[in-house]
Design brief:
- Keywords: Membrane, Transmembrane, Transmembrane helix.
- By secondary structure, the chain is mainly α.
- The protein is 91% helix and 0% strand.
Length: 64
């Protein structure tokens, strides 16, 4: 039982970190769009962060 609770806490911490970086990537991508710059790199980073966040949430749901 302790192992499951520990794993859940680790995944929750990962979700928090990924959530923070996803928000920062979103802000960077939005700022690039507003300035009229081609934001391919920012958009790819945002997409990568969103995918990783989604995978972490899926793992979190399985650990429950």
């Amino acid at each position: 039982m302790k192992n499951r609770a520990r794993r859940r806490q680790q995944v929750e911490m990962l979700i928090g970190i990924l959530g923070f970086f996803t928000v920062m990537a979103f802000i960077a991508a939005a700022a690039g769009i507003v300035r009229g710059e081609a934001g391919v790199t920012e958009s790819l980073v945002l997409a990568g962060c969103a995918v990783l966040l989604g995978l972490a949430v899926a793992v979190w749901r399985r650990v429950r």
